[in-house]
Amino acid sequence: MTDTAGGGPPEIRPSGGGPGARGLASGCAPGTGAPHRAVPAGAGDGPVRRPYFSLRAGEWVFAVAGLPVALVCGVYALAVLYAGTLLSLTVLGLPFVVVALLGARGLGRPHRHLVGALLGEHVEAPAGLPRPDGLVARGRVVLTDPVAWRTLLYLVLRLPLGVLGFAAGAGLPLACGWLIGFPLWGRLMEPDSPPGAGMNALAVLLGLVLLAGAPGALRVVAGADRRLAGLLLGPARAQRRVRELEAARAVLLADNGDRLRRLERDLHDGTQARLVALAITLSLTEDALDPAAGPDLARLRTLVDRARGQTEETVAELRLLTRGIHPVALDGGLGEALPGLTATSPVPVAVRLDLGERPDEAIERAVYFCAAELLTNIARHSGARTAALEAAVRDGRVLLTVRDDGCGGAAPGGGTGLAGLAERLAAVDGTLRVDSPPGGPTEITAELPARL
Hints:
Elements: E1 2-6, H1 57-87, H2 93-119, H3 135-143, H4 146-180, H5 182-189, H6 197-232, H7 237-289, H8 297-321, H9 334-342, E2 349-355, H10 361-382, E3 387-394, E4 397-404, H11 417-426, E5 431-435, E6 442-449
Parallel strand pairs: 2-3
Antiparallel strand pairs: 1-2, 3-4, 4-6, 5-6
Helix pairs in contact: 1-2, 1-4, 1-6, 2-3, 2-4, 2-6, 4-6, 7-8, 7-11, 9-10
């Protein structure tokens, strides 16, 4: 474990840092201490707290109008399971189950639409079924399709939830109205012997209690419907993981392609031009060595000095171009690279390292560039006076945490650099968490596997 602090040259310039990475560690405008108009990070990651009696119209409609749909689909699912069990010993068993599973898979589509339109829960549509050649192969695909079986389970579980939702959305309000109006109903039904005052008070009190509990009951059932739909109607975990990895791979390939094109352009427009100028200088030097009147020493000295300067500029430019491919600082591991990185930050950075084991090279590179971009944006945009960087390897995971006391307001999305950084971390199975309320402080944590 080591603790250091740094402060020094003007700024860190990691590869890929630039306009696209602005706002990465802060929502402040450059050169100001005022935050941009940004939603605090994490505000959209969880359920928004609402007043207890606040109900959405869609929740009530889903609870009341969803009962017939739940009854029809639940009966369908139970009938499929019952008939499939009975027919399993006959030649009709497998074809029947295949057709029934296709029907269940199709019923998942309108349910996802209803949950999204009325409950506000977006459920990602699962991938379509592959279509191999031959009826037997296609039937095998359907029988082993986890999405169809999970949708069938959803239809079964939706039946009791539909009943509970109807009871909370329609039964409780009716019961509340009847109990609160019990003194009136009692007088109307039995004018000669109305209920006593104690019975009337008890009925009204019970009605008020049920009225107070009705919004909570309806929201609990709606929350259960959301969670059930998200768990069973979306892609299977393996399919979702494949999609995430495919998206991360596409981002990584696009990023690498952009870097290669940028490197090619810089080599063509910059380094190649410098080498051509150097070649011309050397040709002029050769001409000055053997003139008819003998060598021109003054001109030779000027040309050699020019060639030396052009060589130094070319080497410096090549070093700058290759800087982002593999940092030389990582040759000694993160334990040496991160303190050296923080030492170049104009904002004093306290470093705390607990690196018991060395991660894979790709993970080290991802952690290094993540730290470099976060520290760069702290220096440029946060208005922070101090910062802290912690890195640790525990239980096969690498944790990188960067904090600053700046103006806060950093939020992923909207084209900010945080979204791009999260995508690049996802390419190596990493995640990014942001805690940056307006006014600060900001804490950003990257978590990656130590081994790929």
